[in-house]
Amino acid sequence: MKNPYLTSVGGPDQKDTHYFSGTGSKWDDQPLCDNEIEPYLRLTAAARRRRNSTNLQVGDFSPTHFHCLCCAASLRMANPSMKVVVLLRDPVARALSKFLELKQQRHLSSFYMDALEIYSYTFVSYVEAELAVMRRCSDTARRFRSSASPRSRLLAAAGRRPRGAAMPRGWGAGWDMGQWMEAQCYARSSILGWSMYDVFLENYAAQFGWRQMKVVYTHDLLTAPNDTLHAVEDFLGAPRARLHPNDKLDDLVNTRDCYSEACSRKRRQLRPYTEALGARAGGATALGDNALVDDLWDPAAAVAAGGAATASAAAASTGSSSSGASGGAAGTSPFGQAVAALRQLYAPHMQQLFTWADQGVIPQPPQAWRAAYADIGGSSTNGNGPGRRLQEGGGGGSSSKLRG
């Protein structure tokens, strides 16, 4: 932890408690939203005793709490004044990163059962199969949708929103059964579904209000790490950390080359995603495919790092953003077609983020996101809660350290 005034509820050796969410896997019997609260409060007190300080903010850094539909309500009951910080990455890059993580972590299958499920899949074949599952799931859920519920009208009357923004709705806070079911489709798909950021953001906003939430993008941490860190500290009300002048805040952990916090990497040391995937991509990849999905790899350092494949990918990525996935058109390779299908899937959800950003609810996302997730296939946001309709075409195919 860079800031001595911030610490984890689980202590220095347990940043992710998963206390209310479990692992977030669909293989978990159930979320732990009704987990006993007193031991959790004791963990908070223990964190303060370890530091022998009352001038300390204790946080929970479990990323699975974001996708857990009932966790926002549980956390709000535990602390209604809680401030929520969410770090978002390009949705296709996040999905690919999760796929590669589970492929690399098959030995942890007792904890991540998802790793066994995808054992026989390539990225291309998994996208094709999982998109079909998600479409069936969301189509079923939509049959249970209803008009605005009395609960949502009551919340709207309370006025807990910035001017111009629609009243957020969520689990136990305005969703009807169809919206709940559709959100479950995404919450139980850790690779593809967890990139439906608008659904999970709105769920938390429905409990805490937008003013108690701060959205940060990986692009911010890559391009202006100190400014981003200070902005988060200011939002939390914590004194700013005094960093060593040589601390560039540029370590990446749990990367594509070494999924462990014990072997951090610099951006210049990363291989391109397509090179790291190898045969797991699912067929030959074109030279430009890496630029479609890689928001961490630094093409400027590729030639210096060496390797023919790396240099070729660097040449193919010329003209793309080095700090965000390219907004260019997806390629014609099987991998490129899978990326195109995912962009189409995420487009309406991303457009909801753009709407919120234009309303001043969240910060403006990286410009590359707008280029990549523009009006694809006629998709649009309709303001009807989670799961702005999945697109039918193209289916063939909270730490200062980033994951690569």
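That was protein one. Protein two is written in the same sequence-then-structure order:
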Amino acid sequence: MLLFHSFGRTYSVVSYQTLLFAHSESVFASLTVLPAPCVWRWNSPCYITQQAIMGIISGRRWTRFIAVGILSLVLIFGIHLLDFANPFSNPDDLSASMDVITACARSDSDSEHPNDSHSAVPQIPNVVHQIWKTTDLRTYSTQMTASHDRWKQALEPLNYTIKLWTDDVILQLINGSYPWLLSTYEGYPQNIQRADMARLLVIHAEGGIYADLDVYPTSATQIQCLQSLNLEAIFAPVSGTLGLSNHFFMAEPRSPFLLWALYEGKRRGGATSRFIPIPYLRVFWSTGPTMVTAAFRKYAWLYGTLQNNLGLLDDGYTTAVIQHKAGRSWHGSDGRAFNYIADHVALGKELQGKSLR
């Protein structure tokens, strides 16, 4: 295991996801201090980061080893730079602010007492939403089959609607119901950023379940059970209970938290996110899981935890509900580099005397 001693703390090389969500706001805020346009001199941070990424992708074994170390040091430096500058960079898990769901079992009383807190008619509608550029899902991937038909096979017999949104239909939704978001949405430099915001939009507008096309249902019974918990929204996890993922989630129509997340996404859009030099990290910070997690932390801080009406699937329980094949279809060279770290380097980290799950 690689260890780095910096500023009185000892770090081991970790997966990029754990590091991002341990101090996500601090990391990305620190990256924004790089000059724009970024200076690509041989000794500039941009150049060093670029060469490290290229070393991971194309270098030999020892070159990759060194490049992984350089990238890890860059992220660690970012953590220290603004470690205490943001009140929402809390590295602790989210269990104090939301329900962590470790299992779900429907009792017979659910059907006998439809008017109690576990209503037979869920607040979260029986609709599964998915998103692609067009209706032709054959263009989705050459490595896997889109999960759309699998959701139909599993849930249509149970009176669910499986809905596919295209780019054109989403634009119609924004023009009609969310015109304040249109300029930000159209201004994103990457399609994945629009897809990230679109999934929040469609669930806020209609309610239901969102699943990426590389997310497959494991148990229809478990999905129904989650809907019966009478929660406003439920999210899949990232790095244990450190973050909220956006590849699978469900919510009631007009969820206040989803609207809050949309506002946070707009705040981070436009020129603000372009100061982050690495596209993969820019997506995470501006519209991806890091943005959704930061939005929740601010939401919980402002409104308190008097109503624990948001749920987070426990890491060990998630596979009982869905299977995520992580297609990574939008990743560029930088994304492949970070995933190389996650896939090939020993995991683990000790930060401030705490072990992260």
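The first helix runs from residue 16 to 22. Keep this in mind for the problem set.
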